[in-house]
Amino acid sequence: MAFFLETLLGGLMAGMLYSLVALGFVLIYKASGVFNFAQGAMVLFAALAMARFAEWIPLWTGIDNLLLSNLLAFVVAAGVMFVVAWLIEYLVLRHLVNQEAATLLMATLGIAYFLEGLGQALFGNDIYKIDIGMPKDPIMAFESLFEGGILINKEDLYAALIAAVLVAALSLFFQKTSTGRALRAVADDHQAAQSIGIPLNRIWVIVWCVAGVVALVAGMIWGSKLGVQFSLTTVALRALPVVILGGLTSVPGAIIGGLIIGVGEKLSEVFLGPYVGGGIEIWFAYVLALGFLLFRPQGLFGEKIIDRV
User: Fold this and answer.
1) Are 10 and 270 within 8 A, CB to CB?
2) Helices within 65-177 (DSSP H only)
3) What is the pTM of this model?
4) Is the separation of the CB atoms in 78 and 266 below 8 Å?
5) Cα-only R_g, the chain
């Protein structure tokens, strides 16, 4: 039982990180109808900015406090992501309003390659380290309940808590603020939102800025765990099954889908891996997503589209 709970907790913590990346897809799709293939590049660009500014700020300011320098680096990197989001909307998206979905898709692919190249030009292409002070030593918990206790990775636990706090903050933002209600109105009906005076361009900038902050937090966490390298762009690919499972238009779906994928990957690798030769954690999510595409393409919480003729 202890081993099962240990695996389950590991899956839940990994699932929260998947949910965080998937939120970037959902937020942009809800507000603009654009499936943002540049989300992985945004995670990489944000992580590069965070890592490099964390190195440069102590040199520029003489600050030797890790927490303060990381906080300043986060603020500066968030500012950079705001500028990037504004430029994407101003230079690209506003000129593609009412274009075909394929056109918007190709635009986000172009943005992805541009951001990868720009990140390399501005911040370099080495492997960088992000040290945000998360402890990496594992701990033993619930020793009084289970013999030997349950092994928990502290870094994964802190990362999951950070992701959970951000997800909760975004949920409150959407539900309780006037801007969040405007975002939901735009998501429901662009033309109706415009008719009551909600400016689409401003809403799209806000959404891309929020997605940029989500990408920054995701890049910071994954960069702390794996190092900042160009393979971080593949993190977005791990979030695609989450979006398919939860639904392209559902924030709760991104959260629950991430948890399901995270737990499913861990449990299948541990309990089914020995029977199928291992490696199931790599392809489990995609097989599950394929099943949903065949039988419930709108996902668990997505809206079912009915075309009337």
Assistant:
1) no
2) 66-91, 101-123, 154-176
3) 0.84
4) no
5) 20
